[in-house]
Specification:
- The protein contains 6 helices and 15 strands.
- The chain has helices spanning 16-26, 32-50, 88-97, 144-155, 171-180, 208-213, and strands spanning 10-12, 56-62, 67-73, 78-84, 102-103, 105-110, 117-123, 132-136, 139-140, 162-165, 168-169, 184-188, 190-191, 194-195, 201-202.
- 36% of the residues are buried.
- The longest helix is centred in the N-terminal third of the chain and has 19 residues, at 32-50.
- β4, α3 (88-97) and β5 form a beta-alpha-beta unit.
- The chain is α/β, with parallel strands linked by helices.
- It binds 1-O-pyrophosphono-5-O-phosphono-alpha-D-ribofuranose (PRP) and uracil.
- Uracil (URA) is lined by residues 86, 139, 141, 200-201, 204, 207-209.
Length: 216
Amino acid sequence: MSDFANDPRVTVLDHPMVQHKLSILRDARTSSMQFRALVRELAMFEAYEATRDLPLEDAVVQTPVATAFCKTISGKKLAVVPILRAGLGMVDGVLELVPAARVGHLGMYRNEETHKPVPYYAKLPEDIAERSVLVVDPMLATGGSAIAAVRYLREQGVAGTIKAMVLVAAPEGIEALLAADDDLRIYTCSVDDGLNEAAYIVPGLGDAGDRIFGTK
Ligand code: PRP
Ligand code: URA
């Protein structure tokens, strides 16, 4: 299996601050309150990386001193689409960087035996087909949930590159997701060792939804 180091579709955030925060996130002793704050912060760092290639256009700004020839973001508007529940924890971090983005929601949970996603909710901005989409979910395990999300977005007319922002990914999930669509980018803070028999990421960080919302 590839380590994705030379795959331009996969970006691993190796920044020291990101890696430090990820270590605390993984720690089983970290409280839900701290976990939520870290997910939000890491999502903001990741959004910074995922928006690095946004197109710019020239702008002329009058400063108090003189005319400045500047750049502003151009091109398609953005939509952030969290996969519920855990993806919700990343939304505010992305919005801190891109406050004007619209937010869509895709609800799905994994069946505990089959590990396949079960969809239960979808609400997207009306103009989703005209937007660039960032799908957010802290965990990319088998890839089933992210693949279902990308397929649904394509059915709704989303064109161009879909960016999947996760915090921890298993190699199996990355491979499956990249194979499922021709125009994807994946951003992650870590590519972990693999999956256990329950399809949990190893070493991972446990159940992200339960840790964010304190449900276990
Ligand atoms: C988790 C996680 C992803 C999915 C990843 O959600 O947040 O959505 O599992 O696994 P996959 O790559 O194998 O599909 P979960 O189903 O536990 O739901 P929750 O967010 O409501 O806790
Ligand atoms: N979902 C999680 O929350 N954690 C995993 O390790 C796998 C799926």
